[in-house]
Amino acid sequence: MLSKGCRIFDSSMYIKDGMIKTIEYIPEDMEFPPRLRLLHWDAYPSKSLPPKFYPEHLVELNMQESQLEKLWEGTPRLTNLKKMELMESWHLKELPDLSNATKLERLDLAWCQSLVEIPFSFSNLHKQKVLAMFACSKLQVLPSTMNLASLKVVNMAGCSRLRKFPDFSTNISSLKLSNTLVEQVPASIQHWTRLRFLELSYNWKLKTLKNVLEGVSHLNLSYSGIENVSDCIKALQGLQHLNLSGCRKLATLPELPPQLMFLSANDCESLKSVSCHFHTPNAQLNFTNCFELSQQQQRAIIQQSFLTERKYRLVTDNRMIIFSLRMPKIKVFL
């Protein structure tokens, strides 16, 4: 924590709840306390921290909305650092060597839109649990392997120049990788046995899906370039939520897992064939604006729903139909 006796303070600065509240002026000879553990400074106005800044004792660094282009020079010992939040630091171009940050658990770089590369030193962050890099729109380079043992949640949605599917950890439970240039899902994802949520929407270069883990429960491929879905998807016994909305080149749907609770395929304007074998009560099916689906196909979907003797909700061509054998009536909402 900081104290009011430190040389860091002048007439333009004050402290509240451990946070520095200032955006106006930093004196050239400014010095931070040498054993500083917490630094929370929103909108930090300089391009880097001062030469006499010593981060060795830092536990938490929070400098969101800063003017930073880089943090510091060299490779200080960061063995106490657990949390680093630099979100919305628009001008940040360079990340420091974090080889010694062996206790780092959370790294938030969301909206760091000048950041191009993640350094290789990130491969050593084995305590890291959360990596937030949403909307790092210039990011292109990742280390070839980053098997971070503790990593659970990764959000790289909006990294619109990223071409490589990240290979971070076999322990990830949630991965958001929408709006990128990724073209394929690697076979290695089959070793991610704890993955439950996979978000791949708005990836226009992603044409096919061959490798998906059986344990995934939520799969979002909406508004992607998906042209076909592999028949092996029916083996995904954990899949409950599948979003294919806006996949305009998708022509056919293979047999899907019978326990699926939610299927959204609205605006799939090329979709002609659907294989529906659902055995889950209260499943929701959405085929709004699938104009290529023939009446025969629509009847087959409805017939299959009745044969299961369970209640279903079906949306087709801007009509919502609710039907149930227990309450045999049809409601249509135009």
From TrEMBL:
State whether keyword Cell division applies.
no
Q: Which domain of life is it from?
A: Eukaryota
Q: Does the keyword Repeat apply?
A: yes
- Keywords tagged on the record: Leucine-rich repeat, Repeat
Pfam families in the cross-refs: LRR_1 (PF00560), LRR_3 (PF07725)
Biological process (GO), any one: defense response
Q: Which InterPro entries match?
A: Disease_R_plants, Leu-rich_rpt, Leu-rich_rpt_3, LRR_dom_sf
Q: SUPFAM superfamilies in the record, alphabetically?
A: L domain-like
What is the protein name given in its UniProt record? (rape) hypothetical protein
Q: Which organism is it from?
A: Brassica napus (Rape)
